[in-house]
Records
---
Amino acid sequence: MECLDKLYTPQLRKLHSGKVRESFKINEKTRMIVVSDRVSSFDNVLNNMIPNKGAVLNAISNYWFAMIKNIVDNHFLKAIDPNISLVQEAQPIKVEMIVRGYLTGSMWRGYQQGKREFSGVKLKDGLRQNQKFNQPLLTPTTKEDQDREITPKDIVQDGWTSKAILDKMSEISIKLFALGTKVLAEKGIILVDTKYEFGLKNGKLILIDEIHTPDSSRFWDKASYEKNPLQVDSMDKEYIRQWLLNNKIDGKFPEILPEDVISDASRKYIDIYEKILEKKFVESKLPLNTRIYNNLLNNGLIKDGYIIIIMGSPADLEHCKKIHSYLEKYDIYADMRVISAHKNGERIPKITEVYNNSIEPGCVLAVAGRSNGLGGALAANLAIPLINCPPFKDKIDLMVNINSSLMMPSKTPASTVIDASLAALAALRSLNLPRLKEIFRCEIENIKTELIKADDELKSH
Ligand SMILES: Nc1ncnc2c1ncn2[C@@H]1O[C@H](COP(=O)(O)OP(=O)(O)OP(=O)(O)O)[C@@H](O)[C@H]1O
Ligand SMILES: [Mg+2]
């Protein structure tokens, strides 16, 4: 089954590639978050993905974002695709507000080993595994490469945020946890623990990231807990964690999950979606990249195709601007870049990775004249069309240097168009977009009509 990993488009700037989510910049105020099907466990991203996991997480978060508005403003703006949302860009506060309703997980492991203080919260002796606390506990951690427990006093003292903001975050976290507990209890689910992230937006505190998802929370089946608190059915990522723990090889976690574990995990994510949202999860029929392309396009976030003009030296800028100007009226995404095949060609594989995997059609124009290594080096790495448009000074320059654009090694399919406007038109045609085909058909018809008109005017009878 198809899974969503990275999302590639040259049209949006990537801000962050996290363990699970990819963030792109839409503008100063808006960020696009793509929830992938990647799964992380014990701070490691696994080699396998879980089909539909991203769509489940995104939908569950958005469900809660709509519900919590009277407790706290949050970053959610608009759902774009099952895996994608637009959110408000915030200044993240680098603290995870963890709220725990039960003694379990890492806290229980610490408790068993005699630890009694967690992020400044003191526990008494004699507590049992999976026991419910009299009231939920706040055990914040820092958000660093290695998250660590931190007391509220140190959060303020070490400058993670101010006392006033921390107090507000604490109050909101407890309120959100109470709401989540109540709503989920009605659906037969126990909200065991969870974490919240906050950010500042124009100085105002808002909730960011995700909320009450099976990645950010522990969920237990209420009925199984009531039967036996020590044999509780987990409805979150615990299934994968447990499988990894039970199948260590030479003390190390396996790198690959077997097929049946992947499909069980996928089923569990869909189950929790259906329990929380109380509706059936409908899998989309379209290939993922096609669906995402359509949704980004329909929301005006990308153009339907792109042309990238890559020059070998900034000295060729004027020629590139000329090509760029011919593209303007076709409403396509056009960009200019500088890479010298000879001097920093090592960048080519990284740059072409985006084009080769992009969700939308594209074409690259290579602008390099004398000993054109650029067109060849790009064509050898690109899975999309490459057209050379060398910038010759004059006819002599052309005659001396044209061969370096025309003669290509094997498996290096670069074509060459000398005239800047023709190169632009050739690149546009290579995209094969229905919208552009229509325009070109009209342009061709107009030229024919003009010629007949000229003929009619000139001929004597
Ligand atoms: N509205 C927002 N404005 C700015 N940053 C945000 C916003 N919402 C979420 N983020 C950040 O985007 C990232 C989401 O990606 P993801 O959760 O996959 O990262 P991660 O690998 O868990 O890394 P991290 O440890 O930073 O959370 C997080 O760093 C989160 O703090
Ligand atoms: Mg995260």
Note: Residues 18 surround magnesium ion (ligand 2) (CB under 6 Å).
---
Amino acid sequence: MMFTKKSHFKDTLKEYCVQEGFAITILWADKSRYTATCAAKCCEWRVHASKLPDGRTWVIKKLWPDFHTCQGFGNLQPYMQCEVGSSQTHGRHKGKP
Ligand SMILES: [Zn+2]
């Protein structure tokens, strides 16, 4: 996948996020590289793009995995789903007075 300029790449990425219903966290972004990951902690999805030697064209070097493991599609709180079962201790008090 190629883009004529960086803003084109960023716009496309943004549209994709809105369409699929998830947020991204930018890990690294400078003049020649751009790496972002899904904002959900439990999700492995990430994208890496970099600028070609021509100084204008941007290309997606890596986009993996193909799908999100965060189940954030259309969900307003993908984060909450991830945390369930990991560090919740509230259930402990249930049987006690
Ligand atoms: Zn995700």
Note: The radius of gyration is 18 Å.
---
Amino acid sequence: MRRKIGNEAVFALLWQQASQIARSDAKLLIKAALVTRRDTPAKVVAALRGFAAWRLDRCARLGGAWLGGAWLGGAWLGGAWLGGAWLGGAWLGGAWLGGAWLGGDGVPLCEIGTKLRCNCHGLGLTCGFSHFPRSRAMKLAPFASGHPFFRGNLHGHSNLSDGKRSPQQVVALYKAMGYDFTCLSDHYMAGLEISSPSVPDSRPLRDERFTTLLSAELHCPGKKYDRRGLWHIVANGLPLDFAAPTQDESGPELVRRAQAAGAYVSIAHPEWYGMTMDEAMSLAHADAVEIYNHSCLVECDRASGIAVADYLLNEGQRLHFNATDDSHLGIDDFGGGWVMVAAERNEPDLLLAALKAGQNYSSTGAELHDLSLDGDILTVRCSPAVSVAVAGPGEVSAVAMGPNLTYAEIDIARIRARQGYFRVTVIGNGGARAWSNPYWFDALNQA
Ligand SMILES: [Zn+2]
Ligand SMILES: [Zn+2]
């Protein structure tokens, strides 16, 4: 997790300290009021002086601790306030020396300090330790980053291979549908009759609002149950000079070569062409499994990659998910499956880095708005759903039922007890889905 100290962290500390001041002020004012009723004016003045001095002291800590010092590896060290204030002889000066320990999100966990005070009664020295209790809830990817989401299609074809529309028409269609990015992942293999001559150059089709990922659907021999005996491997983020795969390359080698060239590589439409579990295992070093392929839904109702993905996860492999169109645009096979990527900006390199890091969710229309984990309680915010299901290794799962569920707290203790991973599926009121990427308990424990 990236350590940062920003305005939020400062405001969090200021708010905590201001709350403490407010509570203590209230107590002291009540005490002063009681004194007023029972005691002499001199004692009332003394009480008010005490209150004012105490308050100044708190304000000094509040301001001074944050105005001086150094940020070193997660610790706030050496924040100091030196100075004082004159108030009716009660307060002459003081100092606070100490530090606050901040969590990885920059929010203070505790502070320790030494306070030197001098007033008309002499000098005083106190040491103190304060602990700031906090929620243990951990936001999960892709929501922890705080980045905006960009909607994109990672798999689609133009007439550079067997698609029916030109690259310009493909991009215009995705722009018109409100996407932020798409790709021309045309078929690519030396000697293949439908192959694009090279990795399609979609750069001229980018503008200030819309971008493209340089992509291709790579093929090579070795796949059972394909009429040409070819693997289908989608690679997003290829260099334009990526050499066409040949008859001599194997699927596992092709995945490695595309990754070495910088691509985010997906196991395409496993259900559509009868991928065996052994074949899936041989590509388990890919980045992701295409768990939904829209053209495979409309053409033959073989859209899913979930069974293959779960098999790989059960086998201890670590891959992410994506949903795509695989549009060819001869029929209505577009706008059905997409990814929502959390990235700093809508730029190819940032989108690819986010995808490789699992900073996305997959969708056919439902939305995930937030995911966080506090102990065994998973909190999900989403578009209106009939079901929010959490799946873990083997058969273990947990669920919250709607309809119209937009917030759910789900106990996943049974899943955690099995170790391994969990993943979240939102089934919307109309049947559309959103899938989180898998989360691994050991990685979360280290975060
Ligand atoms: Zn394919
Ligand atoms: Zn395809």
Note: Residues 217, 232, 268-269 surround zinc ion (ligand 1) (CB under 6 Å).
